[in-house]
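Cross-check.
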Amino acid sequence: MGSIIEDTGADRSAKTVSLARDIQSRLIRHVADKTTDEADCAMFNDAAAYTDPHWLAREREALFGSLPLLAALSSDLPAPGDRVLFDEAGPPIVILRDADHKVRAFLNICPHRAARIVTDCKRGMRMSCPFHSWTFDLSGRLIGQPRSAAFEGLDRNQLGLVPVPVTEWGGMIFVLVQPGGDAEIDMPAYLGGFASELAGLGLEKAMFVKRTRLDARANWKYVLDTFGEGYHVQTLHPETVGRFVLSDTVVYDGAGPHHRMSFANRAMVDHAAVPPDQWPDAELRVIYLLFPNTLIQSTPLDGGRNHIIYRLYPGEKPGESLTYLETYRTAPDDCDVQPWIDAHEFQVSVVGGEDYPMAETAQRGLEAVPGRRLVYGRNELSLQRFHRRVAELIGRPLG
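Predicted model, tokenized:
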């Protein structure tokens, strides 16, 4: 972590420019050659990955129950007493900033009779259970207990909120949903080669713009798959994304279970026809997968950067999922926020109006014919690597 913290703004800027140039060069070569980054061969996957309740149960345990998950950005908790609720990955959790500005997380479960304590995200220096008014401070300590004499003989230190591992890093807040507040979350180690890149995005300065929840009658991995390839762009998105993004022209890089992708834009057709010294300055346009369920799409916008974060979770059944689509911006405080709102609404219309309805039709097909297989082409490299990793972690390795 030390080397990342010690990076100066100039260091980060130089690394970002270098990364943008490398991606630009690779994409333009693909455009010129009509190629894309590929796997060595095509790959089959069992439809059970999307339809089997036992498969989903193992994912909940091995992925959502055991790996660091992005729960919020630092700007979602700007001051002591601010809190967010995180319920989608298993047990109910409240994440807050304490009086010393440290981020903490607790099971949102009263140690008295297990009622939900925090029910909204209003700022406050205390948390009081709505059932019997047991009250806790921002460190999780029990500080108010009506009729405390009725609990005489019990150690009050054992009646505080149960801590959950949490860390704030690079402007992001990650949790492990299993109780154990002393557990370390080493995000630079977990993110590997992408840690310095993500630190360079400037998310510690990102400000919230808008949030939309999208529910889909499709498996969480199928809707995630729609972000992982450009093969479908011209067919499914001819009047939206396809107006400015080329189909099936992608650069891909992996770091452990995570990956980074960039898609070629149509202007690159002209750039491919001229020498590199005539190309425009490279702009960093990337989408990261933070395994298992988070996508961070970061692009330039109106003199700043537009960060769209997708957090995908399974529903109650294999064929159900939900997505939080959240937009943040890094830009001067006095700039017009409307371009970021427009970009958010455009993304909602594409993902919620085009990608997810297609995923729902596919889910019905998978459920209608048990035992069938899907095939991922060589040009669907990210899908291949993602599904191999999932299958490996849940103990059902693919052949």
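The domain at 69-184 is CATH 2.102.10.10 (Rieske Iron-sulfur Protein). The first helix runs from residue 2 to 6. Passed to J.P. for a second look.
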